[in-house]
Amino acid sequence: MANQGLSYEGCNFLRQRLVLSTLSGKRVRIKNIRSKDDDPGLRDFEASFIRLLDKVTNGSRIEINQTGTVLSYQPGLLYGGSIEHDCNPQRSIGYYLEALLMLAPFMKMALKATLRGVTNNPNDPTIDLLKTTAVPLMKKFGIDGEGFDLKVVKRGMAPGGGGEVVFTCPIRRTLKPVQLTEPGKIKRIRGVAYSVRVSPQMANRIVESTRAVLNQFIPDIYIYTDHMKGANSGKSPGFGLTLVAETQNGCFLSAEMSSTPQGQGDPVLPEDLGRNCAKLLLEEIYRGGCVDSSNQSLALLLMTLGQQDVSKVLLGPLSAYTIEFLRHIRDFFQVMFKIEVQKPLEDERKGGDKVLMTCVGVGYSNINKTIK
User: Fold this and answer.
1) Which of 72, 103, 121, 370 could form a disulfide with 158 if both were Cys (CB 3.0 to 4.6 A apart)?
2) Euclidean distance between the first and final Cα of the chain, in Å?
């Protein structure tokens, strides 16, 4: 079985394929990577991602042809330990971190990763978002302990970057199965409005306009302002907002926005950013579920890798990315999810259609961690 590799085409979902290949130990070959482009092959940020995978594993074999349009990856063992990586500024650190979150619990040594680059950009999940949604989600699967932390040492906005993040994660032998089926009502909203290399007043203006929208629904709102100065503020000016709504049952739904990177398109007013971000949060709450849309695939992966027991998670409508992820889980782990659509009753006011995902875990155990 181990010799039978999987092959794919195209540059989409590269991270998903490489992460699942690393966890399942199955070889993967991806061809026709942007072969029709004027500039064919892997992009710099993808090459940087492959180098990061190489750093946390031991004995991975990676072959890329000369044009960069064919990639063969034979995964090694997850090793972990202390690593440093300069992430390519085309994508934010969140792009790299999402994959590390999926791999970290199964390392041989507890991971301590120092990542440098862009901490906040408009396209990828920011560090603030992962810290407030992905980390609590992983704790539900039994990944916790004092060594589990995500710290922003320096902020770096796109395009210049210059940020630094430290991620530490303990290792686990097995994951707990979970039953997350009742999100409960929203009880409070927390957020961070950050600004670097602009007037600190920007963050206050964001907070004011956000509250104007959200205070109509709930009184318990607290938005921190985070203004980093000097060496900790990276190389580019910018500001943004991350909002997280917490439910009575400890589920977290989030939304975020960052200002337009310097020199790329029209500048955005802090008032508009606050208002729009608040509306995004309301939309996320309407979509609902126990896991917000940015963490759907993380939840599904942890369910798949759980002990041989049933896990259930209620999600909002599945994103296109998640649907593709489910196909990949079937390829790499032969796990199929039972998917039940739940329509809310007319008078319940529970937002959009929900999907109840059920699966039996593969009983994945960390081969590196010896039983004491």
Assistant:
1) 121
2) 30
Residue 112's nearest CA partner among 79, 155, 75 is 79
What H or E segment, with its residue span, contains residue 291?
A: none
Using CA atoms, how far residue 149 sits from 162, 167, 311, 321, in Å, is 21, 6, 25, 26
Nearest to 362 by CA among 338, 339, 330, 340: 330
Biggest distance spanned by C-alpha atoms of the chain: 60
H/E run at residue 200: none
Structure tokens at 82: 């202390």
- 3-state class of 96 per DSSP? helix
Q: What are phi and psi of 74, to 5 degrees?
A: -110, 105
What are φ and ψ of residue 113, in 5° steps? -110, 125
Asked if 96 contacts 115 with a C-beta cutoff of 8 angstroms, the reply is yes
Separation between Cα atoms, residue 71 and residue 8, nearest integer Å: 10
- Asked if 104 and 111 count as a contact pair (C-beta separation under 8 A), the reply is yes
> CB count, 10 Å around CB of 310?
15
What Cα–Cα distance (Å) separates residue 22 from each residue in 99, 107, 181, 362? 11, 11, 30, 15
Counted residue by residue, the chain has a size of 372
CA dist 185 → 24, 131, 179, 340 (Å): 37, 22, 17, 22
Other CB atoms within 10 Å distance of the CB of residue 39: 7
pTM for the whole structure: 0.93
pLDDT in tens, 17-38: 999 999 999 999 999 999 999 9
